[in-house]
Design goal:
The complex is a heterodimer of chains A (536) and B (151). Chain A has 536 residues and is α/β, with parallel strands linked by helices. In chain A, α1 runs parallel beside α6 (223-229) and α1 (17-27) runs parallel beside α11. Chain A has 11 helices and 17 strands. Helices cover 22% and strands 18% of the residues of chain A. Chain A has helices spanning 17-27, 66-69, 113-117, 127-141, 166-179, 223-229, 276-286, 361-370, 380-385, 431-450, 513-529; strands spanning 3-4, 8-13, 33-36, 78-81, 184-185, 233-235, 239-245, 251-257, 263-273, 314-318, 331-335, 351-356, 391-398, 407-415, 421-426, 454-459, 496-498. Chain B has one domain (5-117). Chain B is elongated and about 70 Å long. Chain B starts with 10 loop residues before the first helix and ends in a 10-residue tail after the last helix. Classes of the chains: A alpha/beta (536), B mainly alpha (151).
């Protein structure tokens, strides 16, 4: 027995980075808007930094892998055939609950990789298209940073001052100046001032698994309060099984299970998917029907293909003097010295270097032991004391180019707690990316050595991989080579839109949240401009 | 000896856990810290095994297998060799056991104080972070544009 709900004008599936942004933007139309979210509202009082077990919870209920985290609200992912493991979070705010708050934008060249570098494809839009939406998103999310970075066009102007350099950032900056390489304070959604109801950062130093202070922007405390006040309805613990279609080949609504496992049909005039680069192709493939036997909106055959995960090697080392350790936000500075293509290198495209502070006492021990650098036995104590609060750490955010064999499909066996087929990931790292990774690792070693660090250690596929899920329902002008058009509407189903990282054509070498949200605002704006002709 | 019953480990496994934890992180008079086999720390481990129970059981089974019985019953002369072989194995289960020991050891009040850290969670007091030297940005500000034009 399926309960049938009242029809809404717009149904959004997913309340994370993009779902929240599109809900807020569309609210001014006064349409009846409903968002279905499979997770719960989060409560700052339950975030790990409230307790003495704050570091251990990174490996339990706040693990970035849904497979290990295993909350009732999570779904399993078969990522056994991928060297990079999938990270996500299911709850109001989605991945913004469990991200480091690093907030770089894509660069202008990222939208023109075919034209500039002869690889992959150009996007059907460019940086200038998104510029006003980047600015609007910076204002609502509340970005800390500094205008004037020579690596970006000059319009970038974060509304709050940058995070402190601290001892660690000062050491990085001095080293980069000595090498003559670019650096700039990182854009971050950690508030450096009281901002729009959020208290400023007090340096809890454990930003990723939720901020107890509420200084880190997540959409449950930024976009959603605004959208709810404007009349949007957000329904939690609703897991969508499939999008249904009518006899005209249009989306009719969604079938979902509520918290009690009761099946509902939610009819809608417009459906917007915001379930991330894994969840969206999973839902579309699970929505196969006699009208759409290969999955909904999949006439191109590209649903789930071209998955990009951002390989992210890390290099760390230890200096003599005590520095910040984990007593502040991880975000410090970035370098774009190696971001743009350089024909003298043996790879195209490039990467961002992300310079981080250290980590907490338990995690320092755990990661040092895992690296084989912290002995057991009588030498343990004095080795450990040379490491805690002495760590430098550089992440290398490599651009991941699209390849069709990197893909999301439905696992033939694995299912979630409602019996819905789970996603399966098949992914390999390309040769171009491998060369880029080695180049980045070598430069990071150069920097750490120049900073006086010893005991260097590098990880090519760190366990805590970034969780950037991109490219599996790409945008484009040609329906044979893309899933959605230049403003996020399905080529096949004209009342179906996608706004999450699935629609990315290429990945850039940056954390994607800023650009995902700017894109969602742009799609919402495009819809508002075309309300009278939305389905033409 | 902490009570094993709520942890999911047998009493013999708890005894082996105490002994191997003693070897992993021994007590130090120099730093005034207990060993990881200290009763309070073991009790914390047992109370919080959670998702790690299966791996810890596996690791302790591997240890017992190497010992030819209970590790805690092995005589002093052989115990060191068995422990060395076990800790060098780096099996996934041992990595988990190591993490479980470390995450409880490095939140113990006595260990925190020895490291010069306050035994408290980060919230609500947080930490102080100095601004650092922003004059270092001056030469970067003078660089020419680095982005590529891409209409």
């Amino acid at each position: 027995m399926t309960a049938r709900n009242d029809i809404v004008d717009v149904l959004i599936v997913g309340s994370g980075a993009s779902g929240a942004a599109v809900a807020w933007s569309l609210a001014e139309t006064k349409m009846k808007i409903l968002c279905l979210e499979q997770g719960d509202w989060m409560n700052n009082a339950h975030f790990p930094t409230h307790g003495r077990d704050w570091e251990a919870r990174r490996f339990s209920d706040f693990d970035i892998s849904p497979n290990r985290r295993g909350r009732e609200t999570d779904y399993p992912i078969n990522d056994a055939d991928s060297p990079m493991k999938i990270a996500n979070f299911n709850g109001v705010g989605g991945g913004t609950i469990l991200y480091t708050a690093h907030f770089p934008r894509m660069h202008p060249s990222d939208f023109r990789v075919r034209t500039l570098d002869g690889v992959a494809d150009d996007w059907p839009i460019n940086y200038a298209t998104l510029e006003p939406f980047f600015a609007e998103n910076d204002r609502i999310m509340g970005v800390s940073g500094l205008a004037g970075d020579p690596a970006y066009p000059p319009s970038r102007n974060p509304p709050m001052p940058p995070l402190p350099l601290g001892k660690t950032g000062t050491l990085y900056a001095r080293t980069m100046n000595r090498l003559g390489w670019h650096w700039w304070p990182s854009d971050s959604t950690v508030a450096t001032a009281d901002y729009d109801g959020r208290a400023k950062c007090i340096n809890l130093g454990h930003c990723t698994p939720g901020c107890a202070q509420g200084a880190k922007a997540s959409t449950d405390i930024t976009y959603w309060p605004l959208a709810l006040r404007a009349g949007v309805e957000l329904r939690t613990r609703c897991r969508v099984r499939e999008i249904t279609t009518n006899e005209h080949g249009m989306a009719a609504g969604a079938i979902y299970y509520d918290a009690d496992g009761i099946e509902h049909f939610q009819p809608a005039e417009v459906v917007i998917l915001a379930c991330n680069g894994i969840g969206t192709p999973r839902l579309l493939l699970n929505s196969a029907s006699s009208r759409f036997p290969n999955g909904l909106a999949n006439s191109s055959g590209l649903i789930g293909k071209n998955l990009m995960l951002h390989p992210w090697p890390q290099v760390r080392g230890y200096v003599e003097d005590e520095i910040d350790g984990g007593r502040g936000p991880m975000n410090v500075i970035w370098s774009k010295q190696f971001y743009e293509t350089d024909p003298s290198r043996d790879f195209v495209r490039g990467y961002t270097l992300q310079f981080a502070r250290g980590t907490g006492p338990a995690n320092e021990a755990i990661t040092s032991a895992a690296a084989g650098q912290l002995p057991w036995g009588k030498d343990h104590h004095h080795v450990y004391r040379r490491r805690l609060n002495h760590r430098l750490h550089i992440g290398i955010a490599c651009e991941d180019l699209p390849e069709e064999h990197n893909r999301v499909t439905l696992d033939p066996v694995l299912k979630d707690s409602h019996g819905i087929p789970a996603p399966r990931i098949d992914y390999t790292i390309s040769e171009n990316t491998r060369r880029m990774m080695e180049h980045g690792i070598a430069r990071a070693r150069d920097i750490l050595t120049a900073a006086g660090a010893a005991d260097l250690y590098e990880q090519r596929n760190p366990l805590n991989s970034p969780g950037h899920l991109l490219g599996t329902a790409r945008m484009g002008s040609n329906p044979e080579q893309s899933v959605v058009n230049a403003w996020g509407r399905s080529h096949d189903v004209k009342n179906l839109f996608i706004v999450d990282g699935s629609i990315w054509v290429t990945s850039g070498g940056v954390n994607p949240t800023s650009t995902i949200q700017a894109l969602a605002l742009y799609v919402a704006d495009s819809m508002k401009q075309r309300l009278a002709t939305l389905f033409d | 000896m902490p009570d094993a019953s709520p942890s999911g480990l047998t009493q013999a496994q708890v005894q082996d856990l105490c002994r191997i934890a003693d070897v992993m992180i021994p007590a130090s008079t120099e730093y005034a810290v207990p060993s990881a086999g200290d009763d309070t720390i073991i009790a914390d481990i047992l109370r919080t095994l959670g998702r790690d129970l299966a791996d810890v059981r596996t690791a302790l089974t591997e240890l017992a297998s190497l010992s030819g019985g209970a590790f805690s019953a092995v005589d002093d002369t052989r115990r060191e060799a068995v422990a060395a072989t076990f800790l060098a194995s780096r099996t996934p289960a041992l990595v988990t056991l190591g993490r479980v020991v470390l995450q409880c050891y490095y939140r113990d009040d006595r260990v925190m104080r020895s490291l010069g850290l306050e035994p408290r969670p980060p919230f609500p007091l947080g930490h102080t972070l100095e601004q650092g030297d922003w004059s270092l940005l001056d030469p970067v500000r003078t660089r020419t544009k680095m982005w590529r034009d891409a209409p």
